[in-house]
Write a structure and sequence with these properties.
The complex is a heterodimer of chains A (about 160) and B (about 70). Chain A is mainly α and about 160 residues long. Chain A has seven helices and no strands. In chain A, helix 1 packs antiparallel against helix 2. The longest helix of chain A has about 30 residues, at about 70-100. The two termini of chain A are about 25 Å apart. Residues about 135-159 of chain A have low confidence and may be disordered. Chain A has helices at about 5-30, 35-55, 60-65, 70-100, 110-125, 145, 150-155. Chain A has two domains: about 1-70; about 70-130. With about 70 residues, chain B is mostly helical. Chain B has a single domain (about 1-55), classed as lambda repressor-like DNA-binding domains (434 Repressor (Amino-terminal Domain)), CATH 1.10.260. Chain B has five helices and two strands, in the order E-H-H-H-H-H-E. A two-stranded antiparallel ribbon of chain B has the order 1-2. In chain B, helix 2 crosses helix 3 (about 25-35). Chain B is globular, with a radius of gyration of 11 Å. The mean pLDDT of chain B is about 90. The chains are: A mainly alpha (about 160), B mainly alpha (about 70). The interface between A and B is medium-sized, with 34 and 33 residues.
Chain lengths: ~160, ~70
Amino acid sequence: MNMKNKHARLIAPLSTLAVGTTIAVAVRIGHRWSDAIATEVVVVLFAVGYYLLTGTKSDIGAIYGQREDERQRHVVMKASRFAMIVMFGVTFVIALIMVAANKTYWQEDVIASVGGVSYFLALLANGAHDEDATGDDRGIMATDSVTGVDQKNNVRPPM
Amino acid sequence: MKNEVREYRRIRELSQADLAEGLGVSRQTIIAIENGRYSPSLPLAFRIAHYFEVPVETMFDPSEEAEA
């Protein structure tokens, strides 16, 4: 792993830590120290979790570790689209409840949470998994039917 | 889209990880391409063909659906 990848892996956890610490500071201003410390502990756990996740060789690890390839970017797009649809759906349902209950509250936290969870689940669903791996052997020599093709016989290792 | 990536990789005695590294993509992407679950972009398709030194139409056959 080169230095660029090493730093890229830190982006998600450090961003989580920065945003989370800001929230913890806000909690301290409006509440007690114990609440702020509890918030910060959760934030640190999330950041550590992110860091560990970015170290895995899964699609999610590559995506959160900022080293995704074109297929993984496609997975991100599909997951974002799914999360957006879910968030619109939840927003619609909450709006219906609001109108029916004649209340004016707006559950942003519910919408954001459902959107975030949907995104993560969509990443899991659309990503490739290691159990899909087949034929990762160190090269089974070609069968006669394969080597029978002239172009394939001419294949040479890249320089 | 049917492709010959697995066959050429085996002829070269390369692992999926070796090929992934050579092409600058993840191993999961090689798995997905070989299994026909992902059709690579045009630039990646050409990179794969160049890597194995064959024409792109030899490596990929758009007229056939891959066996999943």
